[in-house]
Amino acid sequence: GPGETKLEVDRRRIRERIARLERELKAISRQRELRRKRRKRHGLPVVAIIGYTNAGKTTLPFAKPVPEEEELRRVIPVIEAIRREFPEIPISVDTYKARVAEEALLVGADIVNDVSALRFDPGMPEVIRKYRPPVVLMHMKGTPQTMQMDPKYEDVLGEIKTFLKERAQLALSLGLAPEKVILDPGIGFGKRFEDNLRLIREI
């Protein structure tokens, strides 16, 4: 801040870095504890926290994305409050932004649900590798802004299976155990009505 000497600035930055490392270690420790408690927590509902919606519409066709800072403002306090009141309940953060996912994991989220399957933010795979949370990988053709612009498939089941297999292999290469990789065919995301019906009927 104003009036700080270089030594004071350096000391402050070191303290901030130490505090950050302590939070990261705590988040990694939480993931290890989650693995140990998974059997005990079987059957508990998962609370999904979504901060990228504009009136619930951001992942609907043609919706505009929410800025990262606004998403953080919405998500982090909610996760902190839920974690304080309900320490055992699993919390899933729905985001495709790496910084939002990392900050959410640092304050107590357990699961990352990424509608882009780790594609939209190049930093997301590193966050998953670092904390190794369970991750939901969803198929979506295009982006929320383009996904319903006349989507077409030669073989909707085959294309989705190929896509999800490739994304699952990426997640495994990041160090995730197979049981921590959750695949979502993305019903309603870049699909025609008949595609959605076929997915519901045949998957």
Describe the overall structure.
The chain has 203 residues and is of the alpha/beta class. The chain is built from six helices and five strands. The protein has helices at 6-37, 68-85, 98-106, 124-131, 156-173, 193-202, and strands spanning 47-50, 91-94, 111-114, 135-138, 181-184. The chain has a five-stranded parallel beta sheet, with helices on one face. α2 (68-85) runs parallel beside α3 and α3 (98-106) runs parallel beside α4 (124-131). It is elongated. The mean pLDDT is 86.
List keywords for this structure.
203 residues, alpha/beta, 5-stranded parallel β-sheet
Whole-number average pLDDT? 86
Q: Tally the beta strands.
A: 5
Q: What is the C-alpha radius of gyration, as a whole number of Å?
A: 19 Å
Spatial strand arrangement across the major sheet: 1-2-3-4-5
In the predicted model, the low-confidence regions spanning at least 5 consecutive residues are none
**Outline type:** elongated
Q: Write down the secondary-structure element order.
A: HEHEHEHEHEH
Number of helices: 6
State the share of residues found in helices, binned by percent.
Answer: 40-55%
Biggest sheet architecture: 5 strands, parallel
Beta-strand residue percentage: 5-15%
Distance between the termini: 58 Å
Structural class: alpha/beta
